[in-house]
Specification:
about 50% helix; Beta-Lactamase; Heat Shock Protein 90; alpha+beta; five-stranded antiparallel β-sheet; 11 helices
Length: about 350
């Protein structure tokens, strides 16, 4: 029956655009691989049959250790495994997704599986994530830029009411009331738009893929620095390594970072410091968001992640809080099987800590 299955597997491989292979781990050689497999690796089939280790030379140096650990994991566990690695060619990268099965047969052990070139899909996903990340940041910046003038207009109209009332000019009084009402309704609209967008995003299930956390965080900080809000603050990003790879739903996790930075902006004065740092530990990665703002009062700290109304407070310039941000942050971190906590002291500042498994 094994021979028949192998024949069907090979016949299917000969017709497929994806790579198909059977690898004998005892003899360290391929028993079968289709032409598509060799094409994906940009090698000839004879080259791979003659020297299987030639495949390692095509793997991106940053992914080589990861690829070797995947191979060892396949040998240790007899169940389906899915992996992603990059190949490196002159001036370009190629992304591969592999599905591998360990198949014991008598004293032998085979690895059988498929390889798919996901470069185009991966680049599209990265592009979409960048767009979504910038959209969330832009919404925050836009909300701030709209709230401030609308709030000032409402305040100005309120201050004029007393003087206009003394004149008895009902037309002017009605006009002021209209201005106040219009400002209030548009402030509520902006607040509702932000909350609805974040709630909608947080309710979608996460889809984790291997990502370079350093690249993602640096891109977020770069965008904030260019924005009006960022120019009024000293925003810095640091990391313990040039690349830190882990499994993330980048689109969701960047929403966490955006929300934390947005909150830091609200509660840190002009020219204040906001720091974002990524630290690679043995089995986890620690991300911190630090500011030297006004801090979180002790009485508000216990319910910060629980949507409690008493924990809501306006920013230094009157920015309102929808009350959903911290709950969403906690939910997304939990979905990544991570932990989040914070330390804060009134008048000194706040640091949020997020620890994620590798």
């Amino acid at each position: 029956m094994i021979e028949l299955n192998n024949e069907l597997f090979c016949a299917l491989g000969d017709l497929s655009a994806d790579g198909y292979f059977i690898f004998d781990t005892q003899q360290q050689k391929f028993l079968y691989l289709n032409k598509s497999f060799a094409d994906i690796w940009e090698l000839e089939t004879d080259q791979i049959f003659d020297d299987p280790l030639i495949l390692l030379k095509q793997i991106h140096p940053e992914d080589l250790e990861h690829a070797i650990s995947c191979y060892e994991e396949c040998l240790a566990e007899s169940k389906e495994k899915k992996y992603e690695v990059r190949l490196l060619f002159t001036g370009r990268e190629k992304y591969l997704r592999m599905i591998v099965f360990a198949l014991p047969h008598h004293a032998d052990r085979y690895l059988i599986g498929t390889v798919e070139d996901t470069t185009v899909a991966r680049h599209n996903k990265i592009h979409i994530e960048q767009i979504n990340s910038r959209k969330n940041i832009t919404l925050e910046v836009l909300a701030h830029d709209l709230k401030e003038p609308l709030g000032m207009m409402k305040l100005t109209a309120s201050s004029m009411e007393g003087s206009i009332a003394q004149t008895g000019d009902k037309r002017m009084m009605n006009s002021l009331a209209f201005i106040k009402d219009l400002c209030e309704r548009n402030l509520l609209l902006v607040k509702s738009m932000i909350n609805r967008e974040f709630l909608k995003s947080s309710n979608i299930e996460i889809d984790k893929e291997r990502a370079d956390l350093v690249w993602e965080l640096r891109d977020v900080v770069r965008f904030y620095r260019r924005s009006k809000l960022g120019k009024a603050k000293n925003i810095r990003f640091t990391s313990s390594a040039e690349q830190i790879y882990l499994n993330l739903d980048s689109m969701k996790f960047l929403q966490v970072i955006n929300n934390l930075i947005s909150n830091a902006l609200k509660f840190t004065g002009d020219h204040g410091y906001i720091g974002l740092h990524a630290e690679e530990l043995e089995n986890t990665v620690l991300i911190t968001v630090t500011d030297d703002g006004i801090g979180i009062p002790e009485e508000l700290q216990p319910g910060l992640f629980d949507h409690l109304p008493e924990t809501l407070r306006p920013g230094l310039k009157g920015e309102e809080s929808g009350g959903f941000g911290m709950g969403i942050i906690k939910a997304i971190v939990d979905l990544h099987r991570g932990k989040i906590w914070f330390k804060s002291k009134t008048g000194v500042g706040t640091t949020f800590y997020i620890e994620l498994p590798k």
